[in-house]
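Q: My labmate handed me this sequence with no annotations at all. I'd like to see what the chain might look like in three dimensions before we decide whether it's worth expressing. Could you predict it?
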Amino acid sequence: MRGHKSSERSSRVNSDVQRVIGHIIEFELKDPRISGLTSVVKTEVTKDLKICKCYISVLGDDGAAESTIDGLRAAAGFVRKRLAESLNLRNTPEVNFVLDKSIEYGVNMSRKIDEILGNTVDNTETDE
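A: Here is what I predict for the chain of 128 residues:
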């Protein structure tokens, strides 16, 4: 029973941290390197609340993504401070930003599927 409670708490902490970091990125960071098309995909906070891996997705080219990650890493101290002010946690985790390309991959796959289906539809129409 105890494992269930700790995993429930861990899940709540992760979602709270994700929500707050998303808000900070969207409304508080003014670094021009950070793209407006930035999303917090997922956060993983260690059980001891010392470290948070924050997975970031940036819609755009690789240059925009790298520049956004650089800007976020530069602002990590500010993000941690705001996290401490917003959430009542025993420890405030050190935030490590990691680029996550899963959304971009999904968009590209969807585009490719649309192209294939579009070509199939076009071929069918011209054959008739």
